[in-house]
Every structure is written in C-alpha cells, then in structure tokens.
Amino acid sequence: MTLRIRPVSREEHLAFIASRPSASHLQLPSWGDVKSDWQAESLGWFEEDGDGRPVGVGLVLLRPLPKLKRYLAYLPEGPVIDWYAPDLDRWLRPLVDHLKSRGAFSVKMGPPVVARRWSADAVKAAIADPGAHRLRDVPATGHEPRAAEVAERLRRLGWRQTEPGGSEGFAAGQPRYVFQVPLEGRTLEDVQRGLNQQWRRNVKKAEKAGVKVVRGDYDDLPAFYALYTETAERDRFLPRPLPYFQRMWTALTAEDPDRMRLYLAHHDGEVLAAATMLTVGTHVWYSYGASTGRRREVQPNNAIQWRMLSDAHEGGAAVYDLRGITDTLEDSNHLLGLLRFKVGTGGQAVEYLGEWDLPLNRLLHKALNLYVSRR
C-alpha cells in the first residue's frame, strides 16, 4: 500500500507520539521551538486507504544556506516510523520527495535502531585492558540482528553512514554510543544492587554529609547555568547560552508540565551540582549535568543521579538514559572518567546505527561537509 506524506499539526504529531511507548525527545514538536535557529516542520505518513490518522511522524529541522533558498534537512534520532519494514523505501521515498520540494540539498537522519550492547562488566574489563583502544572493537555482549538488515537497506537506497569522528568517538550530531540503565521489571532495590561498590558508598556518603537533592524550576536555571559554565571550562567544551536552557524549559514544559525537570544538590546552603531530566513515555534521559569543583568529597553528583534514577523508576520508566559516551578507551582521553562514572550505575553501553546522509546535491553537500570539518 502506498504511503503519502504531508505536514501535520502539533496535535496530530503529539497524539501519535503518545500512542507509542516512547520516542526521542528530539522528535517532539516542542524541540523545533528549542532549535530556534532552524526552521521546523512536523510531517506525518498516511496510508492511502487508512483512517486519516498518521502511521508515522517526523520532526524535520531545516537549516538554510546563506543567500540561497537551499536547506540541510535534519531529523535527529528520527523519524518515528517502522524502521524494520522490509519495504523501507516505501517510507523514505515520500520523505525525500517532500524535502526535495522544500529545497533540501541534503538529508541527515538518525534511525533510532540499536545495533549492539555491552554490559557494565564488559565495558569495565575493556577499560582495564591495555590492548582495547575503542569500544566498537570490543566483542559485544548483545547483538540486534535486524539492525544490520536496516543498515543494508539504507545503503541500497543511497544513504551513507556518518562515521564517528574525532578522538572522542562521537559522531557529528547526536551520539552513536550511549549508556542506559534498564528499569523495566526491576525493583528499586534491584537497581541499587546493580550500582558498583564505589557508587553505593558515594550515595551513602552524600546522605551522611547532608546533601539534599531538590527539584527546581525556571527561576533556578541561572544557578544551574553558573555550574554549567564552570563545568564547560573544566571539561573543555563550548557552553550553550542561558537563553537556550530557558527556551528549552518554556517549550518542553508548555507541551507537558513534567517533560523537563531540573534537580539541584544543596550542601550547607550552596548548590554543588545540578542536572536536567527529560521524559517521553517510558524513556527518561539525563540530558545536561553541571557541578562545581568545590566540596566534591560530599559526592553531590552521585546523590543527584541516584535521586533522578529513583524518580524515573517511581514514574514507571523502562529505561534511564545517561546519553552520550566516548568509545575511546585510552587513558589519555579526558572523557574516560565520565565513562567510568556512568559504568558505575551497572547499566549497559548501547550502540545505535548512527546518523545517515543522503546527498541530493552532491556539490552543496560536499561544500557543507568541508565547512563542518574545518570548524
């Protein structure tokens, strides 16, 4: 049966997302409001003889080229379609045709398809192994056989996988490797037992020291931001401006009052750590974290993560997602400490299929890649 595609309202888009167990927060209509420097469009897939309700949706972000009415079209961690359909072209061809008509010269998307998983023990062993240099080269403890079929279908349709770039192992755009704690079917005591010894000790130490983790609101974002800029300087990344987080809070909570949460860890009247948490259906993400270098001995970061994990579990989440990790296992990598911290939760490293490009105008696509690589 032929599928057609057309723009849909926010209400149609959200209703479809709500009908599924979850979808990436980057595929919500509100995310288009967050990314104000892109043009956003909600698209729906419809069966010709269907009941008029979409059978798939996608948030497309369009970035115009200067002085040209040509666009890079980006679907971060999407679209939300049947990725395992043997006739994947039936889904992707109308998308490409629509984006061509909108002036797109290149399409980038991130299929939400898991390829491999590594247990916490496997990652810990890989970190300790001097012969292991990248996670991608370490034998996985779990494989998703259908992922290879999806990748092969995409290649046959002309899509090309974006290779993880840079010494840190992150792909351009959204991370290909993430760390997740499964919660479905587990009691909170099970989750706590899954923490490594150091994590359990640090959670108790924070409690004994009097660290109090509380939920904040919009007015607490400047306190979060002060810690975030300190973290950016310490960890050597370029911070986003405060208005970005204010816009994020306003857009996401307008869509759902509990979509975004802010947590702050207090000790002796000072905020030592802060973090944001996002929820879509049964999937919860730790999205941004920040902390000061002062009083680290009271372990505010462990305290705040344990509170967020506990709240996610109480809310019925199936998975708590700590987002991106490096796949580089070298001691010289400054992100290895963050990987060790996440491994301590007892979860699992997860590899997605990564991001895929389809050049519609090869000259403009090549020029864009050259510009991005030089930046």
Automatic annotation (TrEMBL):
<keyword id="KW-0012">Acyltransferase</keyword>
<keyword id="KW-0808">Transferase</keyword>
<dbReference type="Pfam" id="PF02388">
    <property type="entry name" value="FemAB"/>
</dbReference>
<comment type="similarity">
    <text>Belongs to the FemABX family.</text>
</comment>
<keyword id="KW-0573">Peptidoglycan synthesis</keyword>
<keyword id="KW-0961">Cell wall biogenesis/degradation</keyword>
<dbReference type="InterPro" id="IPR003447">
    <property type="entry name" value="FEMABX"/>
</dbReference>
<keyword id="KW-0133">Cell shape</keyword>
<dbReference type="InterPro" id="IPR016181">
    <property type="entry name" value="Acyl_CoA_acyltransferase"/>
</dbReference>
<dbReference type="InterPro" id="IPR050644">
    <property type="entry name" value="PG_Glycine_Bridge_Synth"/>
</dbReference>
<protein>
    <submittedName>
        <fullName>Peptidoglycan bridge formation glycyltransferase FemY</fullName>
    </submittedName>
</protein>
